[in-house]
Design brief:
The chain is of the alpha/beta class. The protein is 39% helix and 15% strand. Helix 2 runs antiparallel to helix 3, helix 7 runs parallel beside helix 8 and helix 10 packs parallel to helix 11.
Length: 392
């Protein structure tokens, strides 16, 4: 059995273009699906996949580790940049899909079988709409509470929110009090039985991130995410040591090496590698092994398309340190038209049981994908009150 080609199928899903990767083989009816979605860099990722393709043509798709090493090492610039890492990830995910199909078992069976019976999903308040994520009006506390109640009514026992506003490197009490008011309103609305995560999107400076973390500590957050730039792991570690709230980070880290440093510095309680960026399922499993050694929880970043979700779930069923799966809820109404999935979501509690279909258990409807062709994403722009450039 040999690889005969690698295709990319782009599907515009409003906020981002999903990049589905299809690895073809000379075995009739046997192919694998992966995903390499990277918003605002769609054409760059597709080009990177085309650059990698000649390295893999004619190779045995079941030699996954061997092929991963080829993709990562067989060029002077190792595959640890975000574009190259995403391209490798998409292909690697598809190779594991093929491996499962070859052996007739779900991917989690290839990795030792399920270590849990269910995986809990969490949602984003607003269901993926940017206008619901980023709020700056002081009256937003009531709206956050309403969105929180809606998520619980929809069956979720956990949700994530962008309750921390954009801030300059140093500001006074106003943004702190705003975040406090929003989180307090959500906690009052849903009670202590629901888990709330707050994502800073790495926008605050280290000092502002610490001030936000301390101010929100009384509300018992499940985690406080990306309190400052991921490039400054020492600062994230300082925030982690200063508060009891679990700190989560890692979605922007690519390859095992920065995760090793993150764990060595005891910088967080939850690591969040993105399987579609960090090096695929092969590299994610190596990262998971390190996390297990440090007794750090895993909750992979997963705001992308349905193949990414399937990969995250298969990974979670075989990974002891995995705690919860990110789920984009109602991002586009036709999401179910482009994919056939093997798992069903239990509405009460929003949990998923292991699937039984081989590989990732998903199949992409290529004709449906064609209905939503590539559209250039609009870059998000953010400026502070004085006109200086902020972090989106």
């Amino acid at each position: 059995m040999k690889i005969t080609g690698i295709e990319t199928h782009i599907c515009n899903a409003r906020m981002r273009n999903w990049i589905f990767v299809k690895v073809l083989t000379d075995e009739p009816g046997l192919w694998g699906w992966g995903e390499a979605t990277l918003e605002w860099h769609t054409r760059a990722v597709v080009g990177a996949i085309q650059d990698i393709e000649p390295l893999l043509i004619g190779e045995d798709p079941t030699r996954i580790e061997y092929l991963w090493q080829i993709m990562y090492r067989q060029h002077f610039w190792h595959g640890n940049g975000i574009v190259r890492g995403t391209a490798i990830s998409g292909i690697d995910i598809a190779l594991w899909d093929i491996m499962g199909k070859v052996h007739g078992v779900p991917c989690h069976k290839l990795w030792g079988g399920p270590v849990r019976d269910t995986i809990r999903l969490y949602s984003h308040l607003g269901g993926g709409k940017m206008e619901d994520f980023y709020q700056t009006d002081p009256a937003d506390a009531k709206r956050f509470a309403e969105l929180a109640q809606a998520a619980v009514e929809d069956g979720y026992t956990a949700f994530k929110t962008m309750a921390v506003p954009e801030t300059m490197p140093l500001e006074g009490l106003r943004p702190i009090r705003y975040a406090e008011a929003c989180v307090a309103a959500m906690r009052e609305a849903v009670g202590e039985g629901i888990d709330i995560m707050v994502d800073c999107h790495a926008r605050p400076s280290p000092r502002m991130g610490l001030l936000f973390a301390e101010a929100l500590e009384p509300y018992g957050l499940f985690w406080f995410e990306e309190p400052c730039w991921p490039e400054t792991l020492e600062d994230i570690a300082l925030i982690q040591r200063a508060v009891k709230t679990p700190i989560a980070t890692g979605e922007r880290l690519v390859s095992i090496h920065p995760f090793r440093e993150l764990l060595e510095k005891r910088a967080c309680s939850v690591i969040q590698p993105d399987i579609t960026h960090c090096g695929g399922l092969t590299e994610a499993r190596r990262i998971a092994a390190m996390a297990e050694a440090y007794r750090v929880s895993m909750a992979p970043h997963n705001p992308q398309g349905p193949v990414s979700t399937a990969a995250s779930l298969e990974f979670g069923f075989a990974t002891p340190s995995y705690i919860i799966c990110e789920s984009v809820h109602l991002d586009v109404p036709w999401r179910g038209d482009v994919v056939t999935e093997c798992f069903e979501v239990e509405p009460l509690g929003r949990t998923v049981c292991p699937g039984t279909r081989p590989g990732l258990g998903v199949e992409i409807n290529e004709e449906e994908v064609k209905k939503y062709p590539f559209q250039q994403e609009l870059p998000q722009r953010s400026f502070y009150a004085d006109g200086s450039v902020g972090d989106w």
